[in-house]
Design a protein that fits this description.
The structure is a homodimer. By secondary structure, the first copy, chain A, is an alpha+beta fold. Chain A has 8 helices and 14 strands. In chain A, strands 3-4-5-6-7-8-9 form a 7-stranded mixed β-sheet, with helices on both faces. A 5-stranded mixed β-sheet of chain A has the order 11-10-12-14-13, sandwiched between helices. The A-B interface holds A 26, 28, 44, 46, 96-97, 99-104, 126-127, 154, 163, 165, 168-170, 189-195, 198-199, 202, 205-208 and B 26, 28, 44, 46, 96-97, 99-104, 126-127, 154, 163, 165, 168-170, 189-195, 198-199, 202, 205-208.
């Protein structure tokens, strides 16, 4: 399937998910308290009706549009495909932001071809922002019906000038991880918590320099990798390996800063 | 001056400030590193061109529209008025959010009559949301050109179900404050960092139950008091006194929960 068709499908998925997620945003939610360790073992991990409805809508669409492709979703079991294409779906990344009414959650849509991310998309329907990139094209952003604009990370040659983000300090409950995060936090100019997927998009857009997180799931990060990389940034595990499996992840807007952050994390 | 005129002036101020703040949002900013202790002594406290331009625009408008009124602003010296009315302006509350591209900052506009808040407004021009209340009217919210809707806090009879917010854990660097915050955090269902003024508006809208913060300035909180109170919530200092002077502040959506939170803060 040509890359333009795959990208068209991703946009269709984001539109479908937005109808489900916006309908229930800022209403009284029915919440299942399902702990799955995503934000630290045993932490409160809300899953909303909207989360499930959006993933179901996207899965139904994929079953019609590309029945040969596999699906890895946050809420339901993996569907194996006939080939190497697998869609990676996180209908509401940032469920805590969603539940507290903050427009920093997003619908994440990725596509991998074997081990390689082919495209990634983050859609925030309340602010009407969409961020996306395919493997060889530019990283793009648009708001509402305005034309898409190119995303580009900014240079940050000195870590002392860097702005660091992480979704929550509760990610670093293990003492070794807490110390590692603190080493980075002590080196940068400013640390800000509370970002979820939105933070990675702000890194791609050149407003954030470093993101350090722990305990991510595959679906939390895979759809963001093409956006970060095609905007000029770098994203790996804390040990410099692939970020594809989630876990402990670090992203830098200025790729030249990446090794220094990895070195601080090692201690 | 009748309350409707005062409210009209507040809307004019928010419109004027929005023109300045949106122009520079998500651009490369010229930042003055001015530490004033707002987020903990010596912390990085960015002040942007937008911050100053917005406050100057609002001050010029007030000098024309109500030259007898005083002005207490975040960026420039107090202007004394002829009477008891003082406008309280924070052109960009949440400068860290602003600098990292997150749409959680806001323009805060308050009016006090002697010691009494007469009206309060929070404007977030990127999401096109405005929250406001006057002393005797309802708390209201509107987005874009849609009709205003009433804000109402939600009931939360059990602190174990509460959602707690604070702008950053760095507010609680003093060990006693850190312990106090932790006692509240341990009692609630979920803690989320990174909210600034937006969090108080989400409390007024019934999505957040408790906010505990430290080291606020007067301009950070005064414009939010009428919004919280007219939506059904309560806001005081950690010791139960007035929140008007800033400092250590606690807000609850369900006023019946307030004493329990104060008691946890006391330890």
């Amino acid at each position: 399937m040509p890359a333009t068709d795959l990208l068209a499908i991703a946009h269709e998925l984001a539109d479908l998910a937005a109808r489900k997620t916006t309908r229930m945003f800022r209403t009284r939610l029915h919440v299942n308290d399902k702990s799955r360790g995503g934000l630290g073992g045993g932490a409160f991990d809300p899953v909303t009706q909207a989360d499930r409805a959006a993933e179901q809508a996207m899965r139904r669409h994929l079953a019609r549009r590309c029945p040969d492709h596999g699906v890895i979703g946050e809420e339901f079991a993996k569907r194996d495909g006939a080939g190497l294409y697998n869609w990676v779906l996180d209908p509401i990344d940032g469920t805590r932001a969603y539940m507290t009414g903050l427009p920093l959650w997003g619908t994440l849509i990725g596509l991998i071809d074997g081990p390689t991310p082919v495209l990634g998309m983050m859609d925030q329907p309340f602010t009407r922002e969409r961020f996306w990139a395919s493997r060889s094209g530019p990283a793009l952003w648009r708001q509402g019906d305005a034309p898409a604009r190119r995303l580009k990370t900014r240079r940050c040659p000195d870590i002392g000038h860097a702005m660091l983000m992480a979704t929550t300090p509760d990610m670093f409950r293990q003492p070794a991880k807490k110390r590692a995060f603190r080493r980075v936090s002590a080196a940068v100019r400013m640390t800000r918590f509370g970002g979820d997927c939105y933070a990675y998009c702000m890194l791609a857009a050149g407003h954030v320099d470093v993101i350090v997180e722990a305990g991510l799931k595959t679906v939390d990060i895979v759809p963001l990798i093409p956006i970060i990389e095609r905007a000029g940034g770098r994203v790996t595990s804390w040990t410099g390996g692939s970020a594809m499996d989630g876990g402990d992840v670090v992203a830098t807007g200025d790729a030249a800063l990446h090794d220094e952050v990895l070195s601080l994390l090692r201690g």
